[in-house]
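Standup, Tuesday
Yesterday: got the pipeline producing structure tokens again.
Today: sanity-check two examples.
Blockers: none.

Example 1:
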Amino acid sequence: MLQMDDNKIIRRLYHTQGWKIRRIVRETGFSRQTVRKVLRGEHEGQYRMKAPRAKPVIGDHVAAIRKLLQAEQDDKTRPKQLLTAQRIFKLLKKDGYTGSASTVRRTVREVRREMGLGKKEAFLPLEYEPGVDGQADFFEADVDLNGVRLTLTFLVLRACYSRRPFVARVPAENQESLFEALIEGFEHFGGVFHNVWFDNLTAAVNKILNSRARRVQERFGQFEQHYAFEATFCAPAKGNEKGGVENGVSYVRRNALSPVPKVRDLAEVDDLLREFMEEEDERVSARCTETIGETWTQEISVLIPLPASPFDSSRGLRRKVDSRALVSVETNLYSVPVALVGQRVTVKVYAQHLEIHTNHKRVARHPRLYGHHRSSFDLAHYLPLLEHKARAFDRAAPVRAAQATWPPTYPEFLRILREREGSAKGTRSFIQVLHLHQDRCVEHVHQAVQQALTHEEPSVATVLAYLDLQQREENPPESIDADVLERFPIVHVETGDVAQYDQLLKEAAK
């Protein structure tokens, strides 16, 4: 059996003295096979497994792990939304896995290495005081909405001490979205952190003066003053300075939004986020003995109290109404009542919607459009004009946009009115029904039109009659109790003589 010194001699002769294997064999007496083993690092007597060690607990789940990781690659999941070993551990538990999380982590690491997916990251541990620091950041994640892959934008606001997160879906990384999500986050936490860390996002920073000094956007400065916190910005390209929220973003992606959620509407995404935040309050973070929710109670009393009223997150604009009763905001068009054509109005732009005001009165409200050269019409704004230009009804863009929301009874009702009253007059009669949407329940109007179509001669008067009947059925007159009636005196009224009226008529005819 070779000794350690023999191994050392063979390696030195080969690597230091430059001897060939043949000479080493001849001079030392060792076999060629032995010399080659030593040079390959194989020591005589060293134990080698003939087959991989059996893994009875995790073995049946390795294929499932590989399938999950491969599905991510096939779906082109963004790197920051990939499954973590901890998330895979939770998924395997639902499938009956009974082993430990450490075994899953080790197996995931091995499978990733086999698939060429291994990656290591280094993080700097940080410590914070209760209620002092919070960190905010936008991030993106994918969802499958009815089979269509969409990239959505979110904002996470994280308490640095307790690690309690708040996550909200926002329409875009703009200033209005930043304000509204932060306001919602502050209300969720019940107060404001003394110091909030941000990247150098354009919604907040107007200009970077040096590594620390910033010239902030005017509206952001007003927001900061309203909530009395101090905004701190990372040095350029130094997002690691707010590593807590960076880790938090990754954690949210991989625990609330992995695998890529398959949803029927965006409300389901919001439900997923709410469920995630509730579960986080029950989680015990690494190297902690209390849950996140219990640790959070230490921060509440230290937060800055919320102001008496929330900050107005809207951005104000002045616009002139064009000849089509439209105002332009970021290349998109929004309608106003036709009576305002040529006037200047104030537009208040929010993240999800916008409002149009004149003389301190709101005259229009629309969902905010993202994209370019799109239009939002409110048909009610154009009804007075359509009454005078009934022949343009079928080709009017506001009408065509509204038709998508009409029940099938509306086109039938319009056809009947036109056949009986003529094209122009029948259209004007139908416009009267559309006017009812402004002060009556739209569903009630739909139902009244459907009932009117069962009448022999459907008309606007028939629709109004059915609406009045609905109102009486929903709000019947109050009956008077018998004990109340007993308190009223009984009054006897004599019946008149009808013959006296006949006598009066005869006298008048003479």
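Example 2:
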Amino acid sequence: MSPGPVSDSYDPEFGTGENAREVRAAIEQCIRAIGTQASLRGRKPILDVLNRPPAILYKSVALTTKDWRVVRFALHRALETL
């Protein structure tokens, strides 16, 4: 007898696709908060951002501990994809 179907969206860190939707929603919330509070409009190609002198931004971005943990999680996941 073969095992039952396995979800193709399973992730060992957060499980099933339903959980993935919750993680995605939390990351999107942080993206909106950072974009709004830091006055970032639209996305730019990352190499353009890296190859230009940094603009000075004199704003602080108020995020909760939960938000910062979500951002850190997302950054670690981004590194894993490189």
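Quick observation on example 2: The mean pLDDT is 83. DSSP finds three helices and no strands in the chain.
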